[in-house]
Specification:
heterodimer, A: Ubiquitin-like (UB roll), two-stranded antiparallel ribbon, B: alpha/beta, Fumarate Reductase Iron-sulfur Protein, Chain B, domain 2, FAD/NAD(P)-binding domain, five-stranded parallel β-sheet, five-stranded mixed β-sheet, iron (chain B), 4Fe-4S (chain B), Cys_rich_dom (chain B), oxidoreductase activity (chain B)
Chain lengths: 69, 777
């Protein structure tokens, strides 16, 4: 895959709520399994941000590990 | 998976059969591995392989009668590898590294061996290594007396001394000038039997009448020895040596094997085990390992500079490099999928079966199973016709049925199939002005997605050339469901196709796709399905010289048409009729996949690219094919390629069809829908009720190419942006002023980074994942 060119999280603001993202508790789920993780999210509306690096890195690894269980 | 079937598949693969040299050696020295190590300059590893099997490396290294050379397959390409001379150089270079330590037997037994020839001393060595106490009785003044006389020219006394020294360090007790006689007395056979747990009579040639009271003799006065177990009529006495081999040529390596076999029996006897159960030391034999010797140019053997001294180390290395080495691996050489996984069918079949059988734990081979293109090339090159595609498809079916195969491997392709089967493409109509069809044109789903314009022109040509009405059926044959191992789904699709065909009056189906021809032929065997190319060839083609045929074209037959000889012939006739100089690549029988087959390019794009790249590398010529996916995959990987229709129906705008880029999956969908809209409008004067969504989103080419690699559709990206712009739910990157939005369609979450230039969204990046994320309340 391409090298992700993700923005710096501190530069991201929720456009609707006009507030910067903050790290917060998020539930990640796949194939019936739920994992609590910390991810950047809008403190107001809860919009969760997933970077490309995360999507094709750790997240993909977990997806594939669960698929092969 | 059916374990019986799996065993049959495994048994078909001959790669694990021994090479001829190993099979012909009574001791089964792994000469191939040893010579490979020497070729790599690793003498100590080579010597370890040799000395692990050969009891007396110094002696045998000089005088082995090397039956291996007589069967060496290099003989067919310049001359047999001189394994004997290589061994001699190896032993001379590496003997000082020899280290041997006997096992500690829990209860050491006492064994008497009569005769200190190669056979007797080999038995002594093997039993010493097992931890037994061994006493050897020899009538002559020295052990190995025969070798001193018969091999004086080849065998330096120092070599004999070295190996005997080694044997002595293991603790052997050799008593020379000790002729064993019959009956009682200090050297009487009966006394030996009484004082020892077992006795081996490793005698030389000639009758042994004196021992008759103790052991049964044969009619010619030799001890009656069972040829397999070396047992005699006395349970504690075993026989060996040259004694029983009367009249045969003496073979040093044969003598060693003889002693080894007797020692194995004695060890079994001492442990109270059966002498025959599960014994595999069957001595010299043949092999069914296939070796493509024709693939190796002849190279003559290396002649030693000094014949008497034999090979120098450098000469031994050079000669060792003449070893192929012998392997079959015909399929692995042809198939980038097997090569990628560094495996061969026998091992792969076992791995696939194990993966299928796992109850708890990780199924590590899921992706491997889904990476086979099911193209049938392995089957075509295999000396025993083993088809890995059958194995992989069976495994897919078994795992899909039990819900064990991840849908992620094939979901994109199955969605593409669903698109082709939806109202956005599917259609079945009689020719305008006809109430019935004599034939039903079924172009497939990928040709219309790649070249919609040519499909319209081809359909018009068929309508003009065939009487009785040419119906049109736009649909997918269900090949993706078949390839994905979704058997039930595939059967449902076949049933739907059948009912459409019935509703059209059961005409003969004519398809422009090799995969449709094969898939429909298998799933609907009672329905007449033909390829369009022989039909066109029969009808004749009007234009004389096609502009795309100005250069020679190398022909690539689609893998699904590997055995469709009539189609292959017709395609070549049509190409020739429009002036193309067609050159063969591998020939149709040995054609390859383009990576799309078996949905390999979705489950494993790396393997699929290796498959197509290997094919591309076969010729500098532009490629000619008659499968839209083959053409587009060649184009995607940078190879100039034309479809047969580019020759028959050259682009109206005069563009170079070989330079046409791969449309990609997003445009394929658009093309299908545009084709249906155009046909409905032009032929039936109807407007399509579900037109393509209008959008002002700009996707630059390089972003589109990245999206293709990530299997992200333009329509999903547009939907994410449209939703973000209407709902306002998006992130803003203050550094770049780009927006980031997301949306979930089916099982996939798509993220899009875009900017707004005067209100027009320009996509900068897209990515996706399957996991769902949700903020905790």
């Amino acid at each position: 895959m391409t090298t992700p060119n993700d923005p710096t999280v501190s530069d991201l603001v929720c456009a609707r709520c006009d507030v910067p993202l903050e790290m917060g508790k998020v539930n990640a789920s796949y194939l019936g399994q739920v994992f609590p993780v910390d991810l950047p999210r809008c403190p107001s509306c809860g919009f969760v941000y997933v970077s490309e690096e995360l999507a094709y890195g750790r997240m993909l690894n977990v997806e594939q590990a669960l698929e092969d269980k | 998976m059916d374990s019986k079937k799996v065993k049959q598949w495994e048994a078909l693969c001959i790669e694990e059969q021994p090479p001829a040299c190993t099979a012909a050696c009574p001791l089964h020295v792994d000469a191939r591995a040893m010579v490979e190590k020497i070729a790599a300059g690793d003498f100590s590893a080579a010597f370890a392989i040799y000395a692990r099997i050969v009891p007396f490396p110094a002696i045998i290294g000089h005088i082995c009668d090397h039956p291996c050379e007589g069967v060496c397959r290099r003989e067919e390409a310049g001359g047999a590898v001189r394994i004997g001379l290589i061994e001699r150089a190896l032993v001379e270079a590496s003997y000082p590294t020899l280290k041997r330590t006997a096992q500690q037997a829990r209860r050491a037994k006492r064994v008497a061996i009569v005769g200190a020839g190669l056979s007797g001393l080999t038995a002594a060595y093997d039993l010493l290594m097992k931890g037994h106490q061994v006493t050897v009785f020899e009538a002559d003044a020295h052990p190995l007396e025969r070798l001193h006389h018969d091999y004086a020219d080849d065998l330096p006394p120092s070599a004999i001394a070295a190996d005997l020294g080694m044997l002595q360090r293991l603790g052997v007790d050799i008593r020379c000038r000790s002729r064993v006689v019959a009956g009682a007395g200090p050297l009487g056979l009966d006394t030996l039997i009484g004082d020892h747990d077992a006795v081996l009579l490793a005698l030389g040639p000639g009758p042994a009448l004196a021992f008759s009271p103790t052991v049964r003799l044969t009619d010619n006065g030799r001890i009656d020895i069972d040829p397999f177990s070396r047992a005699t009529s006395h349970p504690k006495v075993f026989g060996g040596g040259f004694h029983s081999e009367q009249g045969e040529r003496y073979s040093p390596i044969g003598s060693v094997h003889d002693g080894r076999r007797a020692a194995a029996s004695i060890d079994r006897f001492l442990q109270g085990a059966s002498l025959t159960a599960q014994r595999q030391d069957d001595g010299a034999g043949g092999t069914c390992l296939f070796v493509n010797t024709a693939a190796h140019p002849p190279v003559p053997p290396v002649e030693p500079l000094d014949r008497r001294a034999g090979y120098s180390e450098a000469e031994a290395v050079e000669e060792a490099r003449r070893c192929f080495p012998c392997h079959c691996l015909e399929c692995v050489k042809a198939c980038p999928f097997l090569a990628h996984y560094k495996t061969y069918p026998r091992r792969a079949v076992r791995e696939i079966y194990n993966n299928d059988s796992i109850v708890m734990g990780n199924r590590k081979s899921n992706r491997m199973i889904d990476s086979c293109a099911l193209c049938g090339l392995c089957d075509a090159v295999c000396p025993t016709d083993l088809a890995m595609g059958d194995v992989c498809l069976e495994a897919r079916r078994s795992m899909v049925e039990r819900g064990h195969m991840p849908i992620s491997h094939h979901e994109f392709a199955l969605n593409d199939m669903a698109h082709a089967r939806s109202a956005r493409f599917a259609l079945a109509r009689h020719q305008p002005g006809f109430a019935a069809s004599s034939v039903l044109f079924f172009p497939g789903c990928q040709l219309p997605a790649s070249s919609p314009d040519q499909v319209v022109r081809l359909y018009r040509h068929l309508c003009a050339s065939i009487e009785g009405g040419v119906g049109l059926m736009l649909d997918c044959c269900g090949a993706p469901a078949h390839w994905a191992g979704r058997q039930q789904f595939h059967e449902e699709i076949a049933a739907e196709l059948r009912s459409t065909w019935k509703a059209m009056g059961q005409p003969t189906i004519v398809t422009a796709c090799s995969s449709c021809l094969k898939t429909l032929g298998q799933s609907l065997p009672d329905i007449p399905v033909h390829s369009v190319w022989p039909l066109l060839s029969e009808l004749g083609w009007q234009i004389e010289a096609s502009p795309a045929a100005s250069l020679p074209l190398a022909i690539h037959d689609p893998c699904s048409g590997r055995h469709a000889k009539g189609v292959q012939r017709a395609v070549r006739e049509l190409a020739a009729a429009v002036g193309a100089e067609v050159r063969e690549l591998s020939g149709a029988e040995l054609t390859t996949c383009c990576g799309y087959g078996g949905l390999a390019q979705f489950a494993n794009p790396v393997v699929a690219d290796k498959i197509v790249d290997q094919r591309i590398g076969e010729s500098e010529d532009d490629y000619l094919t008659y499968c839209a996916m083959c053409r587009d995959n060649f184009a995607r990987r940078g190879k100039r390629a034309v479809h047969l229709l580019d020759l028959l129906l050259p682009p109206i705008d005069g563009s170079d069809p070989a330079a046409r880029p791969d449309p990609g999956f997003s445009r394929r969908r658009e093309n299908r829908t545009r084709l249906k809209m155009a046909l409905l409008k032009d032929l039936w004067d109807e407007d399509m009720t579900d037109p393509l969504p209008q959008s002002n989103v700009v996707i630059p080419d390089e972003v589109r190419a990245q999206m293709e690699r990530k299997l992200i559709l333009a329509e999903d990206v547009i939907a994410v942006i449209t939703n973000a712009e209407s709902s306002g739910q998006k992130l803003k990157d203050r550094a770049s002023d780009h927006f980031i939005a997301t949306g979930r369609a089916g099982n996939v979450t798509t993220w899009v980074e875009y900017e707004l230039a005067d209100g027009v969204p320009i996509v900068r990046r897209a990515y996706c994942h399957r996991m769902e994320v949700e903020a905790k309340p």
